[in-house]
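Suppose a classmate hands you a notebook page containing two proteins, each written out with its sequence and a corresponding row of structure tokens. How would you begin to make sense of it? This section walks through that situation. The first entry is reproduced here exactly as it would appear on such a page.
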Amino acid sequence: MKGFIFGFAILLAWPASAQETGKPLPELKNFLEEFQVKRPGLYKPLMGENIDPTGQYTYTETCTETKLDSSGKAKSSEMDVYEIIPTGKPFDIFRRKTVKAGIPLSQRELDKQDREFMERMAKQQAEAEKRKSETQAKPKQEPPPNPPKQESMFLALYDFQMVGRETLDGRPVIRLTFKPKPGYTPQNTLAKMLQHVIGSAWVSEDDYELARVEVEVTEPITFGGILARIRPGSKAAMEWRKFNDEVWLPYKREFVANARLLLLKGMHEHESSEFSGFRKYSVDTKLKFHEK
């Protein structure tokens, strides 16, 4: 279930500091439009893709999964560690597992991951070159003048309200709340799931980047027909920090899930991830992995 539930929901709050006063708040419509321009790929972090959008940083993700009983007490816990390695392409990473259930993987297991990843990269490169050749062989078509502006699914789906100005990690942020608009018709599976979610978002006032988001499931969310169901009350959150004053990277994520699988097996768990060890990563045409 790791990362599965996080695909529809992102809470468990870390308190933000007291709201600043005195400075007028920006106009909501203009603020949301600027945010939409800045974060057109918002679905990626909301789906748990904890990546560097610039493709320049490597870092470590430590993920702890705790099984809970019906009263919320811990029954068992496991820790996995991943090395996040950029490929040199924006929004494309190698999530290399180095520790499984608290036990470091052997060099043989690491080498297998590296080999499979390199094979996948080679296949992608071959497919990209094939598409490029096919495109070059076709007559060029002029793009339509002034193509219509696409509204973000999130702006279409949710009714946003501006709560106020706060400070997060020493930076000014605008707190927004959101809930599904009545009568909205979802256009895809993700929208159908998010239609049962409410939450809050903290957006950096300086550059319109998402600094934190919290959500809570208000109605059952069903996957695969009737095979899996996420129950109301499941909550999650994710927070980002700005590093080297140039890029926002994942900082924390946490969720508590209450679900039922195959209509038989109940699942109640808490999962948290912490991200650390951020550093610039140089990559040439051949990826070089860290030795363990």
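The notebook's second entry, a different protein, reads as follows.
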Amino acid sequence: MFRIGRVSLSGHAAALAVGGIFFAAATVSAQRAAPAAEPPAVRAAAAAGITPPPGYVIGAEDVLGVLFWREKDMSVDVAVRPDGKITLPLINDVDASGLTPEQLRQKVTAAADQFIEDPSVTIIVKAINSRKVFITGQVGKSGSYPLTAPTSVVQLIAMAGGVQEYADISHIMVMRNEGGRQIARRFNYKDFQKGKNLAQNIELQPGDTVVVP
């Protein structure tokens, strides 16, 4: 005979009762230990962002969504200031420039831990304005262009409306800063059009300037 509380049970019934108690306890423990599933709002917000290019790090003028699960008042869309910082409720200024989105997520999570319990943070890249290339000279539209995907010299020229009638397309230059010094790479558009020296159509890097004389 087994006694549970004030109820006496025989062998088989007692075994079933004890087994049920352990099963219920294990179920409650598992429910407490299991992490909460990501809510639909988080997934929808993440889907509203853009996919950064490989090697992307945050820079000035980029627009980020900082989403706190269960903390609506903490969630904001912010633009990275020229000094590389973003401002968040309660946390105030956080250095963001030069970090990957994951590095920023970890940094914000650590800072928020002082104010809320078990913060769950998602960083969403909404606009990349820091990665730019420039084109000037005899093209349809000079200026800066966002570098949100791999872009070659020819592709940038096309984005700028193509070369103008009197452009010297044999002496186009790509100006690039490498190791603190300015270097120039020649791009002969005439040769490229003839299928020659195709390797000169290099992939542009942030900050490059294409000069079409």
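A careful reader of the second entry would note: DSSP finds five helices and twelve strands in the chain.
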